[in-house]
Amino acid sequence: MLNQEVLKKFASIVGPERCKTSPEDLLTYAYDAYVHEYLPDGVLFPRTAQEVSQIMKVASAHNVFVTPRGAGSGLMAGALAKQGGIILCFTMMNRILEINTANRYAVVEPGVVISEFQKAVEKLNLFYPPDPGSATVATMGGAVVMNAGGMRGVKYGVTRDYLLGMEIVLPSGEVMNTGSRTSKDVTGYDLTRLICGSEGTLALVTKIIVRLLPKPKTKRTLLAIYNRIDDAGNTVAKIIEAGIIPATLELMDKMIIKALEDFAHLGLPVDAEALLLMDVDGDPETVEKQAALVADFCRNQGARDVRVSQSDKENEQLWVARRSAFGAVARMRPTCVIEDATVPVSYLTSAIKKVIEIAERNRVQIAVLAHAGDGNLHPLVLCDERDKDEMARVEKAMGEIVDYAMSVGGTLSGEHGIGIAKAKYLPRQLSETSLKMMRAIKKTFDPQGILNPGSFLEHQA
Amino acid sequence: MIAEELREEVHNCIKCGLCMTPCPVYKQLYFEGASPRGKVQLIKKILEGKLEPSENFHRLLFTCLLCETCTVNCPSGLKVDRLMKAMRAEILDQFGLRWQKKMLFNLLTSHRLLPFFLFWGRTLGNPLLSLLPKNGKVGTIPYSKFPRLNSKPLRNQYPEIIPAAEPKGRVLYFTGCATHYLFENVGRSVIDILKRLGVEVLIPKEQMCCGLPIFLSGARKMALKNMQKNIELFNRKDVDAVIVDCATCGAALKKEYTHILEEMGENAEAARELGRKVQDISQYLLGFDLEKFLRPIKARVTYHDPCHLLRSQGVKEEPRSLLKRIPGVELVEMAGADVCCGGGGTFQWEHPEVASGISGNKVQSIKETRASTVASGCPGCRLQIHGNLGEEPIRVVHPVELVAEALLEK
Known about the structure:
Chain A is α+β, with helices and mostly antiparallel strands.
């Protein structure tokens, strides 16, 4: 428990309104979109880097654990106070500070919601591509420390690929800048990309500089419908192999299709075994050509129908539905754990087969969703956390999926991160030397170990 | 007792967070307790016996507009608004009602007190209202922006049956308190249009307040008499429709009565039958060849979706079509027409800072359209928008008022 003296110090930094400690506040900061809950001792809402710095000075002086948090849409307990202490919640530090059209970059505070930022730059004909499924919820700060990926990864890469620099606060309370505002920058170690994906274990991000692209002139959404999920998987591999790069390439199986149709009523084919949802974007002529080409590929691989969206509204509806997939499956079962193993894309079809086989063998219900274009599987494991026996089978199935991904040269997690969800598998991918280096880095930034304790490097399963 | 169906739903919230960004209240406050998923979490903990309903919980539960945006955005299908409404009823005994609400609800449930009170309101209140300090406010609304009470309650201005020579239709008209006591021009417009279309209008004199403000505050038992009386008066087979000009009353009659009676363990069959008969006036009028009766008027109009019309009743296109059918009306969509205005009944009075932030955004969107008129079929939204427009020379009306203005002389 936090002692009252320390708490008073925190409250004097942010004011009583932004220092919350009631049971109701603690319970509502005990969760993210993963399954487990951890109660913090308090929640602070800083508005400036100075406040963050002062908070960290107090925290390090008194050895108080601090866990940073954005919108809490993460899927591995990264933003939860796993060993108590305070949550530093950035949702009130949410201004877009600058959108520079001449040099195509923007500066934002960490609490800005990704989709709101995207809308703001798109108004100026610019484009911020990283687009995680949770973009309408998640914050820029969260995306940065998790190195969020998402739907457009196949063509545009992930959050890391758009970072130019940041302002960070170290656990000691020191404020420092990394990177610059230029796209080329080799001055010193690339600390920007070290913080990116560090799951909030190294420093607190208080300002983010990202590069922007010109907004693609046009976009077309295609929906390919399959009677066999293998055909859908093969289509993806073929498209990528042929050198066509769609902006998005999403695969969903029949369980997902049904859940989405129940929610959104879009007239999705509920009798299909699989769907591919694809965007092509760019200049109008290129888009026309690519859309036709992609449609041909789908048909040649056995798609029974390929629909091309007729309007922006229709595009939008399909993507809103896709973004709802995680929530929508909760219609079938109360709990949903998302797997995130990623394989080289040519293994996609066999990976899907493997997932189905693992599900059957362990008697668990798995719906298959994938950012297929980059081999990023999202098997949604449907269960009920109240059923202990079932949860044990879920654990086992997830372990087997991870093993399979590793065996074909894939990774534990493509974009959701390790947190506590996958910490126990970490030694399967990282060597002892690699872990030792990571722990040394952690120690350099955070010698007292007060930042996001209980995270992936120290988690004991 | 919260219905089993709603109790089970709390386990289906997987905290995806899709309810947060669209929630107007969360977007002002930016902490979880103000968000729908936060409230669902707290209700879950209470149902599991892991949290006692506290004053703080009570406050959070009422830091909600009940705009239902979370419910329509919830991919997991939680009926978040119904859960919160049921919880409000559940903790009523523990926390009671504020005295102002108690007084208001006592008036709204009484056949005798309300007219008596409003008689004196008219004779004394209307003149008094002009004496109140100019910068004084109720919640976010300045005194000067409150409407004056009707010179005579609407239902006293008309007979109970307004016949038609060769009836093209026959409707029961639920006038609602706002039209009856405050916005008589809306009621007159409805009646004028229906008369012109040759529809026979029945206006039961005994009708009571729909009760929605009462039962949404949790006082379901207190509202029971109102619901039963209205069901008795309006659930009739000999009419084409029960028409309503108020989004809120419509939501009450169309669906809330059924839900609440069911959840209270009362017989809800008659309520369900009534629900099927209820139509918003914009829905009913679309069945007629209106253009024949209209002359051009000139107005640049923008339309605001009342929560109780759009989300509670699924009525989105009808009021817009109605406006578009008036010759000369240029309908311009505002950004975020479907976002709550921030009124939320007594919400704007209980949470003026939050409400004024939300209303400020709404006013901004309205101004950006450069419309001269905002149309919205809800007296609550009308009050809130008008009350927050400041000195802007923008008119706030019910769509039927514009239709009535365009009616050709006979």
